[in-house]
Amino acid sequence: MNKKAVIILSGGLDSTTCMGIAKDQGYDLFPITFDYGQRHNIEIEKSKQVANYYGVRDKQKIIPLSFLKDFGGSALTDENLEVPDVVKSDGSNDDSSDIPITYVPGRNLLFLSIATSYAEVLKADAIFIGVNALDYSGYPDCRPEFIAKMEEVISIATKVGVEGQKVKIETPLISWSKAEIIKEGLKIDVPYHLTTSCYNGEEEACGTCDSCRLRLKGFEEAGSKDPIPYSS
Questions:
Q1: Residue 16 has pLDDT above 70, yes or no
Q2: How far is 146 from 126, CA to CA, in rounded Å?
Q3: Predicted pLDDT of residue 13
Q4: 3-state secondary structure string, 114-165?
């Protein structure tokens, strides 16, 4: 039997690359997607297209977490907060805070907890998540320290953990630049034409938000053209 992996799949560039890497490593893919009331909920439809591309749409779980929108506190879930444009050359927000306003409180903590529950039921060997500490170093739940602590929690808070089995949290992109991520994805035929990265959530990406700028910069540095349409 092939080893199994739960893939936290948003429909964005990074998570889709993780999906491709897991497939390339021989895992059976079990994507899990979260509908948390995000402004860019077009990514949910994109995730379905990605899952279909990899032949696992029937295995995909879409989990509602609408309370994150009720909580607000992020430009991605609170309609009263605007998604900022990039004004710095390094792709970061022009924000006095160390943590960008696009940070969603507790998002990856929740995602990994739910993915762990699913992985335990499946008897999966790994959970893949597309966190990146280089481009999004302001997000506390994208750091290696956070992932290490979550693995520790899994080992003591689950049946499989206390029985000595290990569920590994795989973060293959955590120290890669966006260009390095894209180069690897292109090698293994990741369907970037099916993905979206725009925080504004329109059919055509805005090209000006933080996520769009990082993506476009990554494709340029990778020596490739981004296959998705942009309005700007």
A1: yes
A2: 16
A3: 97
A4: HHHHHHHHHCCCEEECCCCCCCCCCCHHHCHHHHHHHHHHHHHHCHHHHCCC
Per DSSP, 176 falls in state -
Angle in degrees, 0-180, between the axes of helices 13-24 and 178-187, rounded to the nearest 10 = 40
Distance CA 214, CA 179 (A): 9
Q: Which residue has the tokens 């990554």?
A: 218
58 to each of 4, 69, 139, how far by Cα in Å? 15, 27, 32
Tell the residue number behind the tokens 């994208």, with chain if given: 142
For residue 229, with 0-12 CB atoms within 10 Å meaning exposed, 13-18 middle and 19 or more buried, which class applies?
Answer: exposed
- Whether the predicted model's global pTM rises above the 0.85 cut: yes
CA angle 85, 88, 92 (to 5 degrees): 70
| Identity of residue 116 | T
